[in-house]
Amino acid sequence: MLALSRTLVPYRYILANPLPKLFSTTITRQLKQVPDTAWPVDYPAGFPNQLETDNVVLRGTDEVRFGRKHIGLVVVPQHLSDALAKYIEPANSRSIRHDYLRLVDAQRSRSQITPRVRLKPHVIEYGPGESFAYTAAFAPGAYGVIFNVLTELHNRLPEFSPKSILDFGNGPGSVLWAAQDIWDIRRYVGIDSSESMIACAESILDLADRRPESVEFLRYLAPEQPNTRADLVVSAFALSELPSDAARQTTVETLWNNTKDTLVLIDHGTPNSARVISQARDFLINLASQDNASTNSLPSEIHTVAPFPNELKDPSNDTPAWIHFSQRVQRPMFTMRTKHSKANNEMVHYSYIIMRRGPRPANVQANNEQCSDEHRLAKEAFYWPRIIMPPIKRKGHVVADMCTVEGKLERWTFTKTHDKQAYRDARKASWGDLFPHEPKSVSLRTYFSAPEPITPEQAKQMNRKQRRSLTT
User: Fold this and answer.
1) Do residues 155 and 66 make contact, with C-beta atoms less than 8 angstroms apart?
2) Are the beta carbons of 170 and 231 closer than 8 angstroms?
3) Separation between Cα atoms, residue 249 and residue 261, nearest integer Å
């Protein structure tokens, strides 16, 4: 009994987590006179209160904290959750569930992930029923992903504070919700081909009572349309629904011509959607190199803010893998009912790019510039590699797959014996973080190499199951 009462446990923890009745009375009686702190330590006479060593290991560095992208859980704000619930309330729950399943089938048909039943790729037109279903099932997850990406943009570019936003494929207005939680947005232009989705976004704005000074919704975005340029242009989960690659290129070019400063493209985390985002990035880089954007009196140069630390080709092209990330989002009660799920959170996978006008900032370390810590970290972060898969954490070492400045996908190993600070930061690192430390060893990521072609002789020696796996 005495040993249990000497543990380093604060008093409030005992009250919040009561122990069995046999121990609770004695422990509570002995803890009544103890303050809400850990037990004091009585050092012997002449013993220093603080040990000093030559190799002090700092608990995290400014660089690692600046490059952290991971957000444990995104919670939908209460005012927004109440507005969504009020908007969905008049709809029939069975109809919402039926339309939700149709939307899921449409997304799976375009994802290149082979389901048990093969589906012909198709896109659903959003009417009133589909708008209710999308808002109930997918709007919270879209908000969480967009909030993660815009938060990273805000941290990476602290001087960037957009006042106007152009939202292509606005849906129920997820981009505006997330942007208002970060910046002071005064002008918002939403583009959506569905009249029902536009009505949905306007209704939620009225219910949430957080309407910017100027709000405008349009059914289409013409190449030479006036009064549509904005500081920040965002397209979230819309490019993969366009019918062809030619339509996507035209849309991306139009969005870039309407971008004053930064363009953000977000889509699902499936192989097809990641390919769409990668192709859009390559198209923008080629467009800037050809100097086709000089007609709008804006800088034609372009650089990638995230997730790639370069303007080179996507290293995952022509490989079985694709670069994507994930974000855990809280599910409101109406989302749980729509998806018939008991879990109050979900993991949403996504792919994205952040492109900005102008050349890539110069490396501060290479030029030996003198500037503030925040400005220095913001410039150095453009040359840090990014963790593109969850790190593998083992005893004494951590293995992480990195996308480097040289445009390669490498596997880096951090060991405790090589660098204690790098090892400690690697154990705390997460999927998607920028990581500035140097590894102990580097090897090429074999999984990202393109598969070798199979000869007809090798195919004859395979059984039916192996040949079938090649076609799927």
Assistant:
1) yes
2) no
3) 19
Expressed in angstroms, the distance from the first to the final Cα of the chain is 63
DSSP lists the bridge partners of residue 348 as: 327
Specify the long-range contacts of residues 315-318, CB closer than 8 Å, at least 24 apart: 315/403, 315/407, 315/408, 315/409, 315/448, 316/274, 316/278, 316/409, 316/448, 317/278, 318/450
Task: Please state the pTM of the whole predicted model.
Answer: 0.81
Q: Are strands 164-168 and 230-236 parallel, antiparallel or unpaired?
A: parallel
Question: Parallel, antiparallel, or unpaired: how do β-strands 187-191 and 164-168 relate?
Answer: parallel
Q: How far apart are CA 47 and CA 470, in angstroms?
A: 69
The CA distance from 443 to 449, in Å, is 13
Residue 328 bridge partners (DSSP):
347
The CA distance from 425 to 420, in Å, is 9
The answer to whether 407 and 383 have CB atoms below 8 angstroms apart is no
CA 190 to chain centre: 22
> Residues in the chain, how many?
472
Beta strands at 397-403 and 392-394: parallel, antiparallel or unpaired: antiparallel
**Token digits of residue 262:** 């930064």
Of 325, 223, 221, 235, residue with least CA distance to 274: 325
The dihedrals phi and psi of 73, each to the nearest 5 degrees, come to -155, 125
In whole angstroms, what is the distance from residue 132 CA to residue 337 CA? 13
What phi and psi, each to the nearest 5 degrees, are found at residue 217? -120, 135
Residues near 209 by beta carbon (within 8 Å), at least 6 away in sequence: 79
Digit-coded pLDDT (tens) for 96-106: 999 999 999 88
Cα radius of gyration (the chain): 26
pLDDT exceeds cutoff 70 at 24: no
The token duo for 294 is 């000089």
> What token pair was written down for 270?
């499936």
Of 29, 387, 352, whose CA–CA distance to 14 is shortest? 29
Q: Which residues on adjacent β-strands are paired with residue 57?
A: none
Helix (H, G, I), strand (E, B) or coil at 400: strand
CA gap 262, 254 in Å, rounded: 14
Read off the pLDDT of residues 161-181 as tens digits, 9 standing for 90 and up.
999 999 999 999 999 999 999
Sign (positive or negative) of CA dihedral 329, 334, 340, 343: positive
Q: Residue 439, class by beta-carbon neighbours within 10 Å (0-12 exposed, 13-18 middle, 19+ buried)?
A: buried
Whole-number Å distance between alpha carbons of 274 and 282: 12
Torsion over CA: 239, 243, 248, 251 (sign): negative
